[in-house]
Amino acid sequence: MDIIKRSMSSPLEHQNEDTAKKIKLQESPKSKQEGEMKAYPDIVKKDNYDFLFDDENDFNFVDMDISRNQINFTKLDLTKWQRCVVEEIQRDRKTCALIVRVKCTQSSYDCSENKENINVMEDLQATCYLRGPWSTAEINEGDVLSLKAKWDNQLNSFYVDKDEGICVVNPDVLIPATTVVGSLFCRRKAVLQDRFRGIDANSKIASDPLSCRLFMVVGSLVHELLQIVLSLPAIINLEQINKIAEDLLNSSDTAFMLYSSQLKKEDVLPEILQFVPTIHNFLEQYIRPRETSSSLPMQAENFQGHICDIEDIEQNLWVPQLGLKGKVDVSARVRKTYSLSGNQGKSLVLPLELKTGRASFSMEHKGQIILYQMMLTAIGKPTQSGLLLYLRDCIMREITGSRNEQRDLIALRNDLSRYLTLSSGRLKREKQSEISIGKYEQPFELPEPISHPTACAKCPYNTLCCTFAQTDPDIKLSTHHELRKVMKDSTDHLYAGDYDYFMKWCHLLIMEEQESRKTNVTAALWTQTPDEREELGRAVGNLMLSSKEIKSDESRFVHKFNVKKVEQTLSNGNWDLTTSGFSVGEYVIVSTTKYLAIASGLIVDITPDYIAVSLERNLLQNYADCKFVIDKYESQVGNAFNLTNLSLMLDNTERSRQLRGIIIERQKPSFFKTLPKIVSTKGVEIMKLLNSVQRKAVLRALTAQSFMLIKGLPGTGKTQTLVAIIRFLDIMGKSVIVTSHTHMAVDNILLRLKSFNVRFLRLGSAARINPLLQEFSETHVLANCRTETDLSKAYNSFNIIGVSCLGTTHSIFLHRRFDFCIVDEATQVMQPTVLRPLYFCDRFILVGDPDQLPPLVRSLEARQNGAEESLFQRLDCPEATSVLTLQYRMNKTISRLANALTYKGNLQCATDDVKNANMKISIPNELVPERWLQRALQTHIDQSVVFLDTNDCSQRSLDYAQNKLVQICSAIEQSFPENENSDTGKFESKSQARSKRLSKYTNYCEAAVVARLIETLLTVGYDSDRIGVIAPYRAQVELLRRLSQEHHDYHKKHSGKSLNIDGIEVNTVDQYQGRDKDIVIYSCSRTGCGGERSRDSEILDDKRRLTVAITRAKHKLIIVGDAACVQQYSPFKTLLGNIPGLCKITLQNGKYDFQWQPLLDNLSLVVKGS
């Protein structure tokens, strides 16, 4: 057969495309084929879908019956769903069929009892011909496919064509069914809506016509009303439905919905009540027994049958076979008297989708039902039809999807996945000169814009759409294209600099998104087994509901899960859920062993025996006796949040114009020349608590007309300064948003305000808020609010609002504009993240230190292109910035080192007491005979900084870990993702991790030195809560934590008196930001001069991280590391160059009474003896 190799083909044609894109075909010499096939590794290590669903539950909307003995089973069997990787792509010259050779991504789960079969399954391959409409699918070598095909004896191969089989491209990206059908009219809007999620939440709703907001809210409430009625065990009458409707309208959830949509109860009440009779008619017609006379005549086109039972409500579906997800309004068991698909008289479970508008039976509505049919069938619940109910007209019809409709919907889904996953964007131009002025390389590919006068003009995404269209060098709109008219109104207010800024940050955010996609944690739910995920610390399995009673709070249900006692599940037999790696406030996915993601919610409590999760549904109703798995969930909402914030910069509003001037044009701030009178009266007591530098910063903040910056060097009291500013604004009657990128940073300020009896409201989930602030949380404050009016009064009664940056999507910001916004730790927030709260204030104050930790950016490419530049850094200039230089933390020796490394002499000790403070401790020689230890713990002020040089101890550390601490070593390897390859996103095998990472991320020799230092300090009576231990890597932190606990247990067991280790905080540099300790011990971790300089090297080469580490110490700083190794990194070279030789101690056998073997033997004794 003549074949030619192709690089890429076009997607299926749709109405949005004017012309199909050309396919480039290249000759593929046979001599190159074998080498090219082997060049593509097994990109996804795992699995087909057999472990989730039974074999007999295959898709039944395609006739796949086949004589199994006809298939050569040395091939991968594609007659059932298989998840596989494309090894090679070819094109049949005669038939134009696309020929894909695929390889199984079999999981070990299926073969757990027969390990010999694992490698055999992973090597299985098959060839599949994609014919007809599937032949134009955009597929590349290395892509993941989900295939179900039919066998052809003549071809000796599988095939998918217009009548048989399904091919899903990139199935690990689960696209909502509503997004797929919503793209039927305009795919460009569907993609923009997904990427810029919530664009009309905070910026558009206020300007939406009342009718639009009313329609959305009424639709949601009617859905809920019908679901409540259907869930009741007994048939109810009209009066009872009316009462349920009133109760629903009076609920706190409805009140918040009305408040969020800026509606009143009076607006929706008549709309809701008009549905009460139609719901009653629906019950009479479809729920009551057939002998009961119906109040409504049955139309011939309506569904002929009745509903026997309600199986489920709001059933959540994640279907990786189809690359889809969705939520079915109602799963109803029905009995048909007549059916388009047959099955008269049989009891069947069908999806029921409710619509509150006029009956249209549009393809968008029918398509949703068709996709739900396919999804239910794929997860083992065969369904050939579904019910579409238009409640307003009380019309319900059975929808049966044809093969053509099913195929085209999946093809549309595949096309969308290409745009949403960045897997096949446009080829980048080699020369930027090819792009004309005013045009930009696009950050991602978008479908062609449609041309519709009304839809384009009213679309909430038209500014975005026009911005991309106007700047895209590949889009040439015709003279009469309707978007040209919209473009003038949507983008005339924007300038070249605005486009530069917007496009630059879109590119940076997409780079970050691409990096996060390399480790698709969500896909692990179906590509890894629960045991594998549990080993990696991402899941907890073998869980059962611990109670037959579920605590409910209106729409939320708190479930308690405990570990099911399964033989040989746990090697130690004592499973403590508090050590599972999960934490209170974490968002999780709950699955059963058969069905994925049946619910999701926040962890509200963890004990050794159970995990309590607040879910949106009661699992007892359908899953009481199931075994559950709880998984961590890494949402992409942060990237969508940032993109949405960027898009708001394009708006033609006064505030957007002001922010463009400040941020993009970098306009300098201006200040009022007179101070408020209140400063000299009520403000006197506040000023007394501040030093002269802090007072200047406070007065400057109070007179700022647009913005100002406060640079708070380490220990200079920036939090105290912020609290003073907020107290002043409070007594002046000003409204203030207090925000930061973390909940902890927000809570630290609010805790200080609490001590001054300042009244404030803390927004956000109660699980994320400091327990000492629960009385100020909105959950507590708004507990008795039952109407939207109550909510409005309560929210408006607070002038000071505390909220994280991500939390500024809260509805309060639709109702109120604030006088000031104060952003703490602003240098740790990405520019787009901090934009959102700035839209809701007149003036803002950014506080931070650009010489400390930058924003967290995972992508190396994004960092190299400027993604670490915070808004503080962008706006930092003498005209805008007040610098706090008087510090109250470090003594003069540590302060001198910080100045030499970073601050160039600007950091000054505020008082002589601070300058001369030293470690108050007495270490008797008879108690600590080792001279190296005596020198390391010297209390003289000039020896406040000590470097303990371990030399190259990589081999010693590796040998010790593998021979002495195997159990602890293995546990750390399994728990921490430092074994992730940051360049490829793949997971190394455990043997690879052990050989590579133990010498790179964990250092057992340094750990032994640190343990000896801590043991000595505690033995002579030093308070544990005044000691801090810092390491750059999480694996080293975990090692030090576990060894500390072993010491605690050992001394308690053998001496009857435990060392008080509990107060010692061991953490990473990032977690120590904003904290301090009297004594800080820093473990550099890296040793040996070889090794790759990847992300781990970047951490040690980051002067800002080292600055944070050394400035946490008040009186004593002890650095433990391999001097020759760390001096490869310029910050450490500078640091070591400024530490006197007297304060450098080489840990060498026989020198200053130091011996490695006794030190390590003592560590082994402690671990074994505990």
From TrEMBL:
Record EC number: 3.1.-.-, 3.6.4.12
Residue intervals of the DNA2 rift barrel domain: 531-633
Subcellular localization: Mitochondrion; Nucleus; Chromosome
Keywords for this protein: 4Fe-4S, ATP-binding, Chromosome, DNA damage, DNA repair, DNA replication, DNA-binding, Endonuclease, Helicase, Hydrolase, Iron, Iron-sulfur, Metal-binding, Mitochondrion, Multifunctional enzyme, Nuclease, Nucleotide-binding, Nucleus
Catalytic activity: ATP + H2O = ADP + phosphate + H(+)
Residue ranges with Basic and acidic residues bias: 14-37
GO molecular function: 4 iron, 4 sulfur cluster binding; 5'-flap endonuclease activity; ATP binding; ATP hydrolysis activity; DNA binding; metal ion binding; single-stranded DNA helicase activity
Domain DNA2/NAM7 helicase helicase stretches: 690-785, 792-859
Biological processes annotated in GO: DNA repair; DNA replication, Okazaki fragment processing; replication fork reversal
Entries under CDD domains matching the protein: DEXXQc_DNA2 (cd18041), DNA2_N-like (cd22318), SF1_C_Upf1 (cd18808)
GO cellular component, one term: nucleus
Location of the region described as Disordered in the Swiss-Prot/TrEMBL record: 1-37
The family this protein is said to belong to: Belongs to the DNA2/NAM7 helicase family.
Protein role: Key enzyme involved in DNA replication and DNA repair. Involved in Okazaki fragments processing by cleaving long flaps that escape FEN1: flaps that are longer than 27 nucleotides are coated by replication protein A complex (RPA), leading to recruit DNA2 which cleaves the flap until it is too short to bind RPA and becomes a substrate for FEN1. Also involved in 5'-end resection of DNA during double-strand break (DSB) repair by mediating the cleavage of 5'-ssDNA.
Annotated protein name in UniProt: DNA replication ATP-dependent helicase/nuclease
Native source species: Glossina morsitans morsitans (Savannah tsetse fly)
